[in-house]
Amino acid sequence: MHTNNQDLPSYILTTDCPDTTGIVAAVTKFIADQRGLITESAHFRDPYADRSLMRTEFRGEELPSLEDLERSFSAVANTFGMHWNFYPSGQRPKTLVAVSKQGHCLNSILHRWSIGVLPVDIVGIVSNHDTHRKMAGWYEVPYHHLPIARNQRTEQEENLLEIYESAGCDLLVLARYMQILSASACKRLAGRCINIHHSFLPGFKGARPYHQAYARGVKIIGATAHYVTEDLDEGPIIEQAVERVDHAMGPDKLMEIGHDLESVVLLRAMRWHAEHRVFPSGPRTVILRA
Prior knowledge:
- Helix 3 crosses helix 8 (about 250-275).
- Helix 6 links the parallel strand 8 and strand 9 (about 195-200).
- The chain has two domains: about 5-90, 2-Layer Sandwich (Alpha-Beta Plaits), CATH 3.30.70; about 95-285, Formyl transferase, N-terminal domain (Rossmann fold).
- The strands form three sheets. Strands 7-6-5-8-9-10-11 form a seven-stranded mixed sheet. A four-stranded antiparallel sheet has the order 2-3-1-4, with helices on one face. Strands 12-13 form a two-stranded antiparallel sheet.
- The mean pLDDT is about 95.
- It is an alpha/beta fold.
- It contains eight helices and 13 strands.
């Protein structure tokens, strides 16, 4: 009987190791020895870190189990001093979304998740406001209202982290969540928390950044998605986008364009993270796309 290739066991292998001769050959030979068919592969030698980064997706009717693949590959990995992981293709990370009053990013996330084109599972929404409860109800996603009372910021953050852990989440997305996570929370969520912000930082801080930008006559606006670290809005960048603007566009138009960019950039970052395409490399990231 003919087997649909889409139904075959399929895995993603990511490797990160010091650069040397024979890495790509060793990985591809291993997959061939397992009777695997490579369906996508990307490799990059980072000249600044002198490291070899590789993402390989493969499938096969006769592939061994994930545990057996890991056991067999360990000998290859040890030869090159690799950091490595196997992931089942199509595995969708459980994702918690945090939001404050602005809902443009949340709306984009929920829409694309609901129609099956964003490869994550949204397991809940947390917010320090009750603004988006109706939206969450429409998409049938649990909504957790965690207001911040005076001098209780620490307790509110612990409640958020408890929701994250109890739901078995793999990713926290700050979709215009206008609260700063503590240093301990950043360490706890290292590599598992993505933030989005407009491109004016650090130039136009504080309230009404698009009005500040209009007053200064900016010619380019944009958005940045990055992993969250203790250094506020300075974590490793995953994706950015920009668009030219001009003097005829008022603050409201600049805000509209900026919000569209924020939504698109955040969605790309979430997708690439979910598909294991983001490789940290010192203070920056390498994105291995086909």
